[in-house]
Amino acid sequence: MLFAVLALGSLICPVTGQEISGSEVWRSGVGDPVMAVALSEDGLYSPVITERNIYVYDQNATVLWRYPVSHGKGVAVSSDSERIAAAGDHLLLFDREGNIIWRYKPDSRIRDVALTADGRTICTATDAGLRVFSLNKERTVANVSWTFDAKDRIKSVSVDGGGTGIVAGGAAGDVYLLSGDGRLLWTYRTGNSGIKAVISHDGSTVAAASSQQVILLNRNGNLLWKSSVPGRIADVAISRDGSTLLLANGGVAVFNRSGENIWTYATEEGIGSVSAPSASMQFLTGASDGSVSLFVLQPATISCGTPDDTLSNAVTAAAEPSQTRGAPHQGQTTSQQEGKALSPATPVAVVASAAALIWWRRERR
């Protein structure tokens, strides 16, 4: 038992700047270039959209259902997976079984879509600006709550978990943060065109990416850092607490909140879409060759002072890096398709050692 405790002691004190590991859990394919991907908070549902279809995978790479769309561009899922939105020539709202419960025909094509955690607010990015819908109590009918005309084509939209902060990226390179009721809080000019912008679930952090540069901002629009990245950045995603940034640039590049590149995945598939990580640090990617992959990030350490009340707390600490804040600076439906499951890399040693320490501490009480 002493050995187990000592083993855990060597694991729980992280080394500053230590890289994380990442592994591919499964891979599948949809036959067409992937336009966008999303992943539910629990990692159980993975919507994927192409120009012609939306597919929803389960955690085992099985397609639960698919539905035809026209010029599909964006996809989103609520935290409970009860509502899935698909955007293109139409805005479609599905339940998790693939039934359409609401549809909307916009004046201009929708470029991106976002859902709040409870699935009651739908945010859309269009060439005419930003349009936000609110659903009724049953989440079956939506009405326009407000619009925002940025005098620019909106290329991307993202919303925090509570719907209090909505970030949009404009074609001219501006990043806009709006309140939940549509008030413009600030604008950040990047000087780069075609900005893709996202906000963390907790609303603390905004990330924006152009073709070869990524920037990180705090809630007030102050610059935390910016960096040039090799390859063309096609998509950007951010973890729930803003501590981890993911870029799709043909492969995948992962940065921490300090701007360090902590993991890179190189591939010839042409990855152009990446989802925000789930609560267990899984994320989904989509590529131009039609491949869809689920990855998991696994920090090599868990932070000192891990609570010992439950094993799940220790595992969560191992799966989610802690947030550090930098000082701001100015400036119809089918179920037929299965993917090939791969062997996920599980942090067995960390879990076993954590369990040993928990048992040892309880025996001492």
Task: Walk me through this protein's architecture.
The chain is mainly beta and 365 residues long. It has one domain: YVTN repeat-like/Quinoprotein amine dehydrogenase (Methylamine Dehydrogenase, Chain H), CATH 2.130.10.10. Helices cover 10% and strands 42% of the residues. The protein has 3 helices and 29 strands. It has helices spanning 2-11, 311-319, 348-364, and strands spanning 21-29, 36-37, 46-49, 53-57, 63-68, 74-77, 84-87, 91-94, 100-104, 110-115, 121-126, 129-135, 142-148, 154-159, 165-170, 174-179, 184-189, 196-199, 205-209, 213-218, 223-228, 235-238, 244-248, 252-256, 261-265, 271-274, 282-287, 291-298, 340-341. It has a 5-stranded antiparallel beta sheet, with no helix packed on it. The chain has a 4-stranded antiparallel beta sheet with strand order 2-3-4-5, with no helix packed on it. Strands 6-7-8-9 form a 4-stranded antiparallel beta sheet, with no helix packed on it. A hairpin with an 8-residue loop joins β2 (36-37) and β3 (46-49). 46% of the residues are buried. The model is unreliable at 1-16 and 302-365 (pLDDT under 50).
Quick synopsis:
By secondary structure, this protein is mainly β.
Output the radius of gyration.
Answer: 20 Å
Shape: globular
CATH architecture descriptor name: 7 Propeller
Query: How many beta strands in the DSSP annotation?
Result: 29
CATH superfamily: YVTN repeat-like/Quinoprotein amine dehydrogenase
Helical residue percent? Answer: under 10%
Return the domain count. 1
Helix count equals 3
Which structural category do the helix and sheet elements fall into?
Answer: mainly beta
Low-confidence stretches: 1-16, 302-365
The CATH class, by name, is: Mainly Beta
Instruction: Determine the mean pLDDT.
Output: 82
What is the CATH topology descriptor?
Methylamine Dehydrogenase, Chain H
Distance between the termini: 16 Å
Strand order of the largest sheet: 26-27-28-1-29
